Amino acid sequence: MSGSVQVSQKERQLQHRKEEHQKEAYRHHHHHRQQQQHHQHQYESSSRLSTKSSASKQSFSTYKTTSHRMKTTAKSDEKALRRAVKSLSPLPKRAKRTYLATDLDKEVIGYVIPIFRANRQEVRALMEAREEDDAEEGINYVAMRNLFVREAREAAEVKVEKKSRFTRIRESAERVQLNRTLDEWTEFRKKMNPDSLMHPPEMTTKPRGQTVWEGRTIRLHCAVAGWPRPRVAWYKNNVPIDAKARPEKFTVESNYNMHYLEIKNCDFLDTAAYRVSALNVKGEMSCVATVVVKRFHDEERDLTVTQPHGFGSHRGVTFETTILDKFKVACGREGETLSLGCTVVVYPTVKNYVPEVVWYKNGAPLKASQWVHAQWAGQRATLTLVHLNKEDEGLYTMRVITKSGYDAYSAYVFVRDADVEVEGVPVAPLDVRCHDVNKDYVVVTWNQPAVEGSGPILGYHVERCEVGTHHWAQCNDTPVKYARFPVTGLVEGRSYVFRVTALNKAGVSRPSRVSDVVVAMDPFDRARLLGPSAPWTGMIKFTEEDHTVGVVPGEPTEVVVTEATKSYVVLAWNPPIQRGHEGVMYYIEKCVSGSDTWQRVNTSMPVKSPRFALFDLSEGKSYSFRVRCCNSAGVGEASEATGYITVGDVLDPPSSPGAPVATRNTGTSAVVSWAPSKDVKDPVGYYVEYSAVGTDVWIPCNNRPVNQTRFVCHGLPSETTCVFRVKAVNAAGYSLSSAASQPELVRAAISVPATPTDVRLLEADRDTMVLGWSEPADNGGADIRGYFVDYRTVKGRAVGQWRELNLRALTAASYKVENLRENVVYQFQVRAVNMAGVSDGSVPSAALECREWTLTVPDAPVGLHVVEVRDSSMVILWEPPSFDGRSPINGYYLDFKKASDGEEGWMAAHEKANESTFMKVSGLRAATSYVFRVRAQNLAGVGNPSAVLGPILAETPPGTKEMYVDVDDDGVISMVYECPEMIEGCEFVWAKDYQPIADPTRLTIVEEKGRTRAIFNDPSPEDLGNFSCVVTNMEGVSSSYQLTEEGLMHLLDVSHDHKFPVIPFKNEMAMDLQEKGRVRFWTQVENCSKDCQVEYVFNDAIIQQGKKYTMNFDKNTGIIEMFMDSLEVADEGTYTFNLVDGKAKGTTSLVLIGEEFKALQKKSQFERAEWLRKQGPHFIKYLDFTITPQCDVLLQCTAANMKADTEIIWYKDSLSIGERDEAAKKLEKKADVLTFNIGKWVSKQDTQAQSEESEPPAEDASPPPPPPPRPKISKSDAGIYEVYLRDERGQDKSRFDLTNEGYQAVMNELFRVIANSSSQIQVTSTEHGIVLSSDVTYYHEDQRINWLHKDAKIAASERVKAGVTGEQLWVKINDPTEKDKGKYAIDLFDGKDGVKRVFELSGQAWERAFEEFQRLKAAAIAERNRARVIGGLPDVVAIQEGKSLNLTGNVWGDPTPEVSWTKNERELVSDERYVLKFEHGKYASIAITSVTRADSGKYALVVRNKYGTEAGLFTVSVYNPEDDEHLKQEKK
């Protein structure tokens, strides 16, 4: 360079200061980036490959932000420097450092895994040095670029202009203002352009894939923006979803920009890729969400005949469904087989298309079983009910579903009881079901039958049978009145079925239908076997030195009485928490009210289930119950006793329903309605009975209870007067029958008649018209009393209002209308009337002009002849009549009959008038002779018939050829007719609609020997019609072809295909992303020859196989493939496969540009990075939280590809958790699942376990203390948790932010689990008042809990207080009053809205609680005030004979008790020897002067008042010292 650049000392100082600020900004950026690494994408790990991405953009923006904090001078210089970089150099923003290993040709040869062995300070120093080098290199580059540009611009020398700091700042401000003005002007121009307002669709919210269980309903949603408003469509496996065709499966909604797809009652076949596509004039965008439906286990399928989805022959067809031969209301008898069926006609008929037929019973889809079978044969849908039972009674519906909608039909099925073997016995019960199945216990319920027999039902017997045997064992010795019974004594693991019989004084009924099979097993085991596999809960089970082995189980909890009748009482409880690994069994104890003795009920055998039914209790007595647990270690402590329960029926039979009202329906049915029973608990339904007037026999109308208060009674005797009554039923029994209805005659209800038909004009004059009509087809059940005629004027397309012509009903079916206006057009309609009312108006007549008639009907047609005679058809032609009548002819009627039939054999060949002068008659019988005649029609009517044509024999002449259509290889369409027997002098004559061709230019006729061809010059809709060809001088040789619009379209398509053959593709070009990020472009053709060639094109340039591209064409399968190992920026564009196979060609393309290409490129890079990452230890499920049902907070992740030496390191807030840390005891590794139990309690002994492992335990070492009540999670647990996997193959990282929003999300989930674990509100009475409580699994002090009374929050006071004890939430009401009655609720915050438990403290609940409170209060008062000895008396008194004894006892009682002294249970009386005193109502004393041995004995101070009696016992022993010395001497 010839010139030189001089830089002043001031500029060098400024340059140096700017570089120092640059270095400081990079240091700040590097430190900030280390802190931001915790917020990377969830798929990112420490070993993940990072290229030019959003991370580098973020770094550059951070650098810009930091730079703006510098001094003003450095800031302005830096801005100038950046503008120079932006204007002079296309350098990209610096990308994040990559770990790809490349060779000299920049080809990727491997992946470098950095191993950091230095400490953090050393690494930081290295990074800062590298950043400083990069910054210096960038500044030097800009300076060099600046020099070269100036040299090119000035072409000689570079001038350096010195400017002051003020000048540079001013120029910089002016440039900024100029750029801002230009930007505003550009934006304004864009807004003024209308096309700028339009933009392609954009999915602001994309649908997310879901995994659900069968039977659930899911909802996919997305938000779409775009202008014009895009059209949104949903696809299932690329097949459009028609929600109207399957409304029971799909629902599509669009609200503003939100679009929803709801999939109802998911089954396994709904597993698919669902795509939503948004389209407008600017473009199209789609997104795919995968739905996976998991199956619990093999279940019975619905009775549904389905059509597979896909592009079938029915695509684009609108179906019309007609149900014929409908099944009527059916009545069967028990044990019979009943079939219901309909004929389903679907128009148009499409080959292999089967509509979907679903059967319902009482609105619920039917399941296939041994009793129910559905069939579809041809057009017949049949439902077969095998071995009818009363359970089969109900409303049956058949729904036929097509893609165009659905049609349904319903009818009721009644099932009558089979004949009883013994007169007067009840009929069999029904609906036997099993509930609350446990290891050795089940509750059996049933419904009472409609007929009790000759007497009321005395009870029911329940029988069981083990599956696989035929032995039925009776479960109850005494009949039960309730329609439910607890069965005990089942053998765990065995399967049973149950049935029920009814008993009255006449005998026992037949058994009911057996219940479904139940297995006697623990409900939790059943849920585990039948339900989905539960996720790992994080519970740790000790297998070594388990201190629970050999421990006596704890006490059961929550012992309650679930059922109480006069026959039995059912108890339920929760198993104990402390029970070891072995199973526990239970003993039940009872205590009669008024005694303190507890008696064990099941002494012979403990029960296994936490349920037990007690029988043989005394009705009217009150009992309390408690439960003990036992195992091999012994019997545990008793549970808390229940309150005293009085044995008796709690559920009462329902009250009588209201009197029924019967109305007519049909000739064999009536509609009965009634008022429901009042204050009935647990109603089952109603039975309706009828009786003919004059008899006492009541016959049931339904054999299965109905829940509605309206019922249609079928099967009634016609023309018989009947009365009806209703009775309600629940588990306790029947109600009294209602009062009988008013007598009602069984007869069809009278309705208004149908409309008259065929309103016509019989005669007309200048101002009068004579009308006639036909009577209605249905008179509505009553005689027609007359007719009313209405009229209106018609002028063009405008019509006037209907007006009445006659005020009185007409008795005849004709009427003369007078005072009309000549040449005015009128329309008329007629309405019929009977005693029920006036019918609707008939179909309006034709528009009739009021003018005088001359002649009426037309003359007869002439010139009848026949052509194209075949075995089953022939064409009749004729000429119009010579006279048309008063009006032009508007049609013809063709009649025919067999030649051998008489005049009564004439039949119409068509229904509507034929406007042409020819007609083809089809459906004839071969070798049969027919005759024909034609009649013309005008407005006046139908004229006389023509002369008879025939007889004509229906027989195809030998050698007859039919006309056909041909399309040659050049796409020319022509009609061809051949006549090989054609002789000389004969000609082919072409006609259209049997008339000479009006425009001969439309066809080109080509004739050869015995063959003619009519070529369409320009096929179009003008050529539609019937083309025929006749051979002259050869009688009967002719043929025709009907060219319809549909046929023309088909021929045009075939012609186009012949002109321009196209290689058909099975699949258009598609793209697959394979392992390691490899991209595969592929397509498949339907068929091709061996000469087929493929040209691979990228952006209009032909590409060849090489290092970058790999091609493959399998001509056997037709699959064409092209592979690329990776996608680069230069690979954005259009990829095309051009195929050439002889004359045929084919092209398929795939466009990858813009955001779609960037997304694919990013995904490819990600797949390759993921492949590299998965070569070492890695996470397949990243760190996330789980709340267990026990409210334990677990952080869990799942790893894969780990070795024994793989290092697992946990961090909290960037601090590693060492093996000796307390938090290390909270870590758990089970298989590949890593768990951190946040709420686990770690004792000091556990913390010091490692240091004390080698020391032997002390002999007097006590067991570790129980864990203290520590919260499951607290704010001290908040922080950022990380897990690292590391070995020689690589490393991976997972991170969870348990701060702020993360901590709140965990707390909300914890609150939800706690709220849902809350029990129903329980009532407990104390001596102070009433306590309402609810138990939760765990209580957290931060959870918001509110108690409500009558929907108002309860305020704390001295009388009403709320609180928490352990895991029990309670509110105490001291000294309750009537104001405290009402609805109480506890509202527990669950992170969203709240969970509410409600209890109605009124009625019997209030009375029981208040009575118990008063009883306990009275007992407390009695306990406080009863008489008692409170002290002063010794247990034993030893006194020397002759001494005086003085004892004083302190007593208490209110009122003051009565005091007495006893000796050896005999009362003492105060005398000279015994001095008895009672002073101040408190002190009772006894004095015995000069005691002797006779005074020895058991004494008692007895005190009593009205609240009780108590005795203070003591013993007096009198001894003589001399006797003692004498005894000692004797012993010596």
- CA-CA gap between termini: 144 Å
Give the rounded overall mean pLDDT: 80
Radius of gyration: 50 Å
Q: Supply the number of helical segments.
A: 12
Strand content: 35-45%
Brief sketch in words of this structure:
It is built from twelve helices and 103 strands. By secondary structure, the protein is mainly beta.
Structure report:
This protein has about 1550 residues and is mainly β. Strands 12, 14, 16, 17, 20 and 21 form a six-stranded mixed beta sheet that branches. Strands 48, 49, 50, 52, 53 and 54 form a six-stranded antiparallel beta sheet that branches. Strands 4-11-10-6-7 form a five-stranded mixed beta sheet, with no helix packed on it. Helix 1 packs across helix 3, helix 1 (about 10-35) crosses helix 4 and helix 3 crosses helix 4 (about 120-155). Mean pLDDT is about 80; it is low at about 1-10, about 30-125, about 295-300, about 305-315, about 530-545 and about 1245-1255.
